[in-house]
Specification:
- There is one protein chain.
- The protein is of the alpha/beta class.
- It has one domain (2-137).
- Helices cover 27% and strands 22% of the residues.
- The strands form three sheets. The chain has a four-stranded parallel β-sheet, covered by helices on one side. A two-stranded antiparallel ribbon has the order 3-4. The protein has a two-stranded antiparallel ribbon with strand order 6-7.
- β1 (2-6), α1 (24-30) and β2 (34-38) form a beta-alpha-beta unit.
- The longest helix is centred in the middle third of the chain and has 18 residues, at 69-86.
- It is globular, with a radius of gyration of 14 Å.
């Protein structure tokens, strides 16, 4: 199987805080498969660490009120290009991320409240026919 994985789940320090979301469950699941790590936020040109961002009315805005939507959309497009080129079978993404969340995201108020929704990369992958799952679903 060919699997795209949010790089932070593999232990790469690309999370907004500068850390990672290393998941032993993900690492066990992907063992023996071909893996394509991605961090759409970094691929879109954002630094690590960076100001946290959430989706506000379909636009990605960071906590300081800066519109970072273009970088998120660019990273999503680059992830889609990899998915198409590599013919991935599935994408395992970081839950709740404004890029990678596939079931729920934060509500845009920076209060920690969650709502049903998808991050921009997860949505683009799904729109293009790819199987997208949250790491929590494994």
């Amino acid at each position: 199987m060919r699997i795209m994985v949010s790089a932070c789940l593999l232990g790469e320090n690309c999370k907004y805080s500068g850390g990672n979301n290393r998941s032993e469950k993900v690492l066990a699941f992907i063992r023996g498969h071909e893996v394509f790590p991605v961090c759409p936020e970094v691929m879109g040109g954002l630094p690590t660490p960076r100001t946290p961002a959430e989706i506000v009315q379909d636009t990605v805005i960071n906590k300081e009120g800066v519109n970072v939507d273009q970088a998120y959309r660019l990273g999503a497009k680059k992830a889609l290009e990899i998915a198409m080129r590599e013919k991935i079978d599935m994408a395992i993404m970081q839950p709740r991320s404004p890029s990678c969340g596939s079931k729920e995201i934060y509500d845009g108020t920076f209060s920690g409240r969650r709502i049903p929704g998808m991050g921009v990369t997860a949505a683009l992958l799904k729109e293009n026919g790819f199987c997208v799952v949250d790491a929590d679903e494994l």
